[in-house]
Design a protein that fits this description.
Elements lengths: L7 E2 L1 H9 L5 E5 L11 H7 L6 E2 L19 H10 L7 E5 L9 H10 L5 E4 L2 H7 L29 E2 L1 H10 L2 E5 L3 H5 L18 E2 L6 E2 L2 E2 L2 H10 L8 E5 L6 H11 L18 E2 L2 H6 L13
Helix pairs in contact: 4-9, 8-9
């Protein structure tokens, strides 16, 4: 069983770890903001963050050879980013973001760690919003990279099977072996609302199902396991019998679906916490931005749920 750490950790648990002796917990702020939000994630990190946290920008640590937004970086780029941030292979990494949703971009980095074989990784349930609401300690400091000393982090197991390409999704239109789950809003999925990226058509991949990532959240936290299971069942999505792919606008909120599915199918620890395991949902990394800009088939006005 991968990792044997919880998929989600609470603010209270993290607060205890930050003052515990010999703790291997490392904290990362993985905030990412959509262009329309008019926010600067790095500036916000430097103004206020969880003590000891470093910052990881999914919009900059990416595949520089691609014109698509924040595509998965090559293994060597991810490895160097971890070394610069003092992350070691045996660390338990806890990720959060500062979004108004409570959970938005943190699951993207969780999925990236799993993709690169690092299983001791969790997401802070409720994110920075919950942390500050509970008046827990914060600090302000400029981001200084690389840290001293740099770590000797090594990507040990690149799991390329967790990534789907445009061609994979095109091929799936014929063989239908995998079920595409779309994390965008129902309006964008149906083609009745514009995409946030100018000039990009809305709509959806034929045969896909709309599961807005916000459906998995309540009070800015991930819903309970039973509620998550119900969401998939209502959407006629059997996580056990058919392989699923998560997609969205650009590969970020899709990872909320992947993490929710991971919780539903996870073994539980003695206290009922969902543990990381080996079955991680693949992500269509190019997502709708690639699909809609490449002349691929588009359906509209079919609200699946």
């Amino acid at each position: 069983m991968a990792g044997s750490v919880r998929v989600l950790v609470s603010t209270a648990w993290l607060a205890r770890q930050l003052v515990a002796k010999n703790s291997t917990v490392k904290v990362i702020d993985a905030s990412f903001n959509m262009p329309a939000w008019n926010r600067d994630a790095l500036q916000e990190y430097e103004a206020s963050h969880i003590p000891t946290a470093t910052f990881f920008d999914v919009d900059k640590i990416k595949d520089e050879t691609s014109d698509l937004p924040h595509m998965l970086p090559p293994a060597n780029v991810f490895q160097e980013a971890m070394r610069d941030r003092g992350i070691y292979n045996n660390d338990h990494v806890v990720i959060y973001d500062c979004s108004d949703f409570g959970i938005f971009s943190a699951p993207r980095l969780w999925w990236m760690f799993r993709m690169f074989g690092h299983d001791r990784v969790s997401v802070l349930n409720g994110g920075f919003t919950a942390w500050t609401k509970e008046e827990r300690p914060v600090e302000s400091a400029p981001l200084k990279l690389p840290v001293e000393p740099r770590s000797d982090y090594v990507v040990q197991d690149e799991k390329t099977e967790l990534v789907r390409t445009r061609q994979d999704v095109l091929d799936n239109l014929a063989h239908k072996k995998e079920h595409v789950l779309d994390a965008r809003s129902r309006e964008r999925f149906n083609g009745t609302a514009p995409e946030p990226r100018p000039g990009l058509s809305s709509g959806h991949v034929p045969g896909s199902t709309c599961l807005p990532f916000t459906d998995f959240l309540a009070d800015k936290r991930m819903k309970e396991r039973g509620e998550l299971e119900t969401i998939f069942k209502v959407a006629d999505t059997d996580l056990q019998s058919r392989r699923c792919i998560a997609s969205c606008g650009s590969g970020v909120s899709a990872c909320v679906i992947a993490m929710a599915a991971h919780i539903v199918t996870a073994p539980l620890d003695p206290e009922g916490g969902a543990l990381n395991h080996d079955q991680v949902m693949p992500i269509y990394d190019g997502a709708w931005t690639e699909w809609a800009s490449s002349g691929c088939p588009i359906e509209k006005h079919q609200d699946a749920q």
